[in-house]
Amino acid sequence: MTGAPGPRGVRLVGTGRAVPKRTLTNADLEKLMDTSDEWIVQRTGIRTRYISDRANDEGVSGLGARALGLALEAAGLSVSDLDLIICSTMTAEMPCPPAACLIAARIGNPGCGAFDINGACCGFVFGLNVAHEMVRGGTYRTVALIGADTLSALQTYTTAGRSTAIIFGDAAGVVIFRADPNPSLGIIAQSMHTDGTGWKDIYVPRCRHDAPPGVELPESAFGHVQMNGAGVFKFAVGTFPRLIQETLDKAGLRATDVDMYVCHQSNARILHAARERFNLDESRLYVNIDRYGNTVAASVPLCLDELVRSGRVKPGHKVMFLGFGGGLTWGSSLWQL
Asked: Which domains does the chain have, with CATH numbers?
């Protein structure tokens, strides 16, 4: 920790990602439920996803710790350099302790700060804004932000659960930030929103009291994702372009001034529509949902790690991070790297 006075910037110094060993392809799903590869690809763009196994230590804390180790290696830092660990997740192994605390124990840093954020599919983007202010404000020097989720634990891989089982996959991604003497580095503009009245479009009930008014849920629904796919799609299609424009307006930038858009991977059609709306070529708005599915809080850092390691995102770039999902929530974080 440090309380150094004066303005300071926030530098991205390392990224990492981890996925389970098992893949689940659309062909595999065809054997489990009444669906087809053509139907899934046409509606979502997804071809395969990763499915975790707790017996192989592939829960949120296991995947998160693996990804964090890779990010520390990329940053050239040691475990003891971390002042704070933030984990964005909606599927921590237990309600208590937080996954971030388990990750701190796994990597051997029991003295750092650690807590979880649950912003569903927006969790990592919200976490970017939180982590930035913790460093910019002078309280912490080195912060690890983890996005990790294992939504497979909330699915039924039968025809009854196919509306959500085809969509979600499991993964973890990590970004490490450090204080920097250059105050121009960090967030240029950000935005966070919610419409809590739309919660019923995607939720995970634990008991009958969690059902929306007038809805009778069978016991088989408890502990599994319930989603109004058409409602969520309509929300995202309408919200996504407005969120991009709002963030550009706050920053006083044009769409083409941003080098890369790193978006939550919920549906390929939504991402392609945003490209067309802002006349962006494919190189500026990254898509990897075909290989991972919707990994919730992990989707944005998964994209970022691939982009950083391939050299497509690097120091000097302006990068806009975007998320939208359950809550209903939507948010952005535009960075000068």
From this structure: 9-180 (3.40.47.10), 186-336 (3.40.47.10)
